[in-house]
């Protein structure tokens, strides 16, 4: 991890698309300015968001682009009076509009990183930011209080893994919708009810458990048409938080439900260039780390992946099909 080197390895996406056109390249070492840290990247966690954007692209990306939003690394250079200092191990969620973290070194603003406490391994910590922060923001948007009924669709995903636990801490009653093979794990996390999302009788099951009024709150993780379907199961003036956008809402349904709609966007902190929101990422990172260390928060199982074009390509394909049984973490080897 010498800062005297002038070149580094980076895994570049040459264009978006289903073929995931990845190639390993050599690039110049980045140089930090004031209030920035030079970090030797050690682990990068890949999320469904990474896979979806690698397939569909993003309006603010130039190609070749580097993927990877969640990273853990060690600070190797920090300016005078800038904290954390060199030697600190930090966790962060990167700027969505800039090059990502599948590379050996990165420059990051010091105000948006969270320092890892002793006792938490970096390969575990790195899976926290994107999913964990989204869960925390969703709980904030929903204004959950004790006794609220909360439904979570696509509950087999990483965001739901954290949202279930934080919702139970608020005293909510949690209804998780997922394939049957996930039900046992979801109940262990605290879900009060697990529904088979592939069952034709799921609407009847909902009415049987909560009655005709609908849920107080819904966390929609999939977006699109699923948001409209979730809205039909919301009570009048209920709260719904959406992670992946939604299309046109029929006027009749909008007036019938009069919903309080919240949109969750981790990347918005960077896209809006909002310093307070970026600092909030740091605070949420600290909370997630503290909750894991104290045992209040269970983390998903992880799988270490080689830092190579083929291994990352296979992982992105796995994420798109939701067939990853464990959270994929890329280990960045420094020679």
From TrEMBL:
Residues 17-330 form the Enoyl reductase (ER) domain. Gene3D superfamilies: Medium-chain alcohol dehydrogenases, catalytic domain (3.90.180.10), NAD(P)-binding Rossmann-like Domain (3.40.50.720). This is Zinc-binding dehydrogenase. It comes from Pseudoalteromonas obscura.
